[in-house]
């Protein structure tokens, strides 16, 4: 099937620093180790905004002739685009929000390559070095807001949710927006779009004109979760681990809606971080919420957490069913505690430096078949370390479900094998089976073929 495409010359809507000849060469370098492939694939994902597609491999195959080239001029730069998805344009003109996101891709890929990856002053093998890298990427993206009280709520949840669940997430976002709270999500569709859309209405009613709708993503997931058009600030971190750290250091509280393996990964990440002894007294409001029909979903999540991480993990979150007002009030009260804590400790409101994020939560996990098979999924370790390894297991499943490299690995070598303690494997098998049964692994209408096999 042929999909309609458009050729265009794009000029940045906002200010973008002039690129050096060396930087332009990096983007044009199609050889191994160059940035062109990464830049091209992320740009295509951004241009796919609004599409009902959650398969990174399928997206790349749908537009094989897509090309993007940086054109350097005396006054700045332009982008020369060939065979771009036509739905990114209106009457031949690119939608402004997509235009901004396209130049965000350029900004972040150049910056990460020059100032982070190739910077000898930043030690990405140390915990402090990784946290500093996350901070510098966010600061360069101009999304940190000093002299502003805490009010950023991170919303996590699945891209594959029902219409009723989407509408519920929108109502929660509306209630948060009415209380002057801003929204940060993974920037994709579903439970990532709903809260932002609701908050825009709440902000409009309160005449809040500078509402922040922050999207945080990474190159591996952006094709499956293209930034939704409400995102007014987008930042692309180099990998999933730095993306997750960006969420928990910039956000002042987290609301979790129903989702699949990716949402489970996010839950395990924040619980693992909060279970570290250094974070014992750290206030961090964490609410799980959904409709009455989602109650069984959260019971399954709660059962899994209780059986793997124990009662101390269950004390760090609250489950609120079908009550958007209560969710917003709980989040507002929790953020007030965060403000008081940061004020007493002298920590910044815009970046949580005091939060201890241990190395196992920062090291990039490559979900190869061997790495998945050799994960330490047993209770003979501290609960926060078990959470780190469980997080990696779910991260691998996400890769096998929707990421280009992961899908290709499954096609070539078959299922990921996940091994561990009998009790943990039984709980994991039950949880994943419930995700499949509730159609949370792929968008509606697509048959899900598991990319994993639980070895009990």
TrEMBL record:
Catalytic activity field: AMP + H2O = D-ribose 5-phosphate + adenine
Entry superkingdom: Bacteria
GO cellular component: cytosol
Pfam family, one: DUF4478
EC supergroup of this enzyme: hydrolase
Domain Pyrimidine/purine nucleotide 5'-monophosphate nucleosidase C-terminal positions: 335-455
UniProt xrefs under SUPFAM superfamilies: MCP/YpsA-like
Ranges for domain Pyrimidine/purine nucleotide 5'-monophosphate nucleosidase N-terminal: 10-116
GO terms for MF: AMP nucleosidase activity
Enzyme Commission designation: 3.2.2.4
UniProt protein name: AMP nucleosidase
Species name: Methylobacter tundripaludum
Lineage start: Bacteria, Pseudomonadati, Pseudomonadota, Gammaproteobacteria, Methylococcales
């Amino acid at each position: 099937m042929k999909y309609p495409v458009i050729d265009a010359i794009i000029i940045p809507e906002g200010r973008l620093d002039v690129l050096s000849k060396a930087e332009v060469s990096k983007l044009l370098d199609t050889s191994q180790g160059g940035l062109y492939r990464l830049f091209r694939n992320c740009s295509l994902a951004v241009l796919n905004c609004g599409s009902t597609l959650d398969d990174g491999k399928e997206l790349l195959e749908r537009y094989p002739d897509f090309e993007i080239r940086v054109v350097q001029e005396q006054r700045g730069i332009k982008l020369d685009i060939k065979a771009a998805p036509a739905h990114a344009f209106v009457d031949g003109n690119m939608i402004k929000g997509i235009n901004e996101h396209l130049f965000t891709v350029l900004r972040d890929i150049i910056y990460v390559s020059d100032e982070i990856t190739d910077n000898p002053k930043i030690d990405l093998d140390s915990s402090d070095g990784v946290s500093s890298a996350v901070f510098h990427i966010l600061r360069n993206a101009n999304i940190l807001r000093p002299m502003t009280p805490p009010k950023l709520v991170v919303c996590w949840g699945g891209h594959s949710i029902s219409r009723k669940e989407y509408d519920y997430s929108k109502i929660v976002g509306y209630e948060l927006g009415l209380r002057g709270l801003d929204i940060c999500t993974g920037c994709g569709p579903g439970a990532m779009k709903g809260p932002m859309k609701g908050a825009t209405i709440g902000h409009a009613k309160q005449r809040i004109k500078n509402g922040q709708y922050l999207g945080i993503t990474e190159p591996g997931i952006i094709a499956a979760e293209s930034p939704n058009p409400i995102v007014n600030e987008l930042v692309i971190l180099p990998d999933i681990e730095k993306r997750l750290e960006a969420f928990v250091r910039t956000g002042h509280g987290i609301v979790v809606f129903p989702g699949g393996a990716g949402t489970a990964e996010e839950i395990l990440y924040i619980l693992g971080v909060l279970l570290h002894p250094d974070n014992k007294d750290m206030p961090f409001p964490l609410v799980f919420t959904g409709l009455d029909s989602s109650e069984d979903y959260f019971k399954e999540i709660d059962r899994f957490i209780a059986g793997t991480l124990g009662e101390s993990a269950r004390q760090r979150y609250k489950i609120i069913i079908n009550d958007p007002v209560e969710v917003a009030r709980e989040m507002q009260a929790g953020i007030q505690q965060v403000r008081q804590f940061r004020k007493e400790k002298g920590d910044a409101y815009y970046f949580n430096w005091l939060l201890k994020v241990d190395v196992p939560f920062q090291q990039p996990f490559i979900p190869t078949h061997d790495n998945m098979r050799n994960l330490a999924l047993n209770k003979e370790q501290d609960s926060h370390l078990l959470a780190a390894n469980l997080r990696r297991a779910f991260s691998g499943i996400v890769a096998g479900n929707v990421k280009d490299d992961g899908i290709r690995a499954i096609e070539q070598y078959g299922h990921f094998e996940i091994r561990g303690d009998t009790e943990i494997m039984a709980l994991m098998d039950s949880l994943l089976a419930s995700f499949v049964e509730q159609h949370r692994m792929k968008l509606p209408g697509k048959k899900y073929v598991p990319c994993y096999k639980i070895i009990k």
